[in-house]
Fold this protein.
Amino acid sequence: MNAIEVSHLTFSYDGQKDVIKDVSFKIPEGSYTTIVGQNGSGKSTIAKLIIGLLGAKSGNIFVMGKELNEKSVYDVRSHIGIVFQNPDNQFIGSTVADDIAFGLENHCVAQEKMQPIIEDVAKRVGMQDFLNSEPTKLSGGQKQRVAIAGILAMEPDIIIFDESTSMLDPQGKSSINKQIKMLHEQKKITILSITHDMEEVAQSEHVIVLNDGKIKLEGTPMEVFGHENELKDMKLDIPFALQFSKKLKKEHIVDECVCTLEEVVNQLCP
Ligand code: ADP
């Protein structure tokens, strides 16, 4: 089954010009898809359409087989967790444990059942030693891990990451990228990640490149990185390790590329 299916989706804000233009794609259950594109290409608008925060002008969206419409929107949302860009805007509890408990309380989970769930999800994101800490005092990467724990407690089928690493330092980025990979590989959660981070794109299974509200390129990371010039035209860079090894080859410092596309994608590059 497809976790998300978007079919001929078109959208405009307040009857202005279309910003999403006849976009169709399928995200199979358990898969890991990244969406990339320049600022203003329509990435966040698509995420908002998928969770029903915006209504399409035309086209259809199906989530876990159910068509999204006014009646089904709350049901559809119960399948999806979202991690946003700014970790500071997503905390409600005064401790990490309270924060994770908040979503469970909203879902009327009995008090005595909460503690084991909180401990389990905190452990899964490596935050089990911070349950009594104040969320605001954590690092950016730790905050995002707490946000992920809160979402995992709700057992969603799909997690959307909306530029969730863009405010993090390289270490925070890398720790969240590892978390995302783990959720995909071990927990089989469907991942849709909107990102600027080409290192993250390299670890996904499927890439959608948006440009001016349309799908410009789509395929595996290997296929998409092969279109280097088209990506450059959209101000998108291939991963640094791949750029670096190509440069060394071009300047005749080495005969062969230090990293092949395949090694970068499979994170085998030193
Ligand atoms: P991205 O996430 O790729 O940066 P967005 O989905 O935010 O792109 O924006 C797509 C287009 O829609 C842009 O042209 C942007 O200016 C426009 N847009 C975004 N939000 C609004 C809004 N609330 N009202 C009008 N236009 C908007």
Summary: Residues 13, 19, 37, 39-45 surround adenosine-5'-diphosphate (CB under 6 Å).
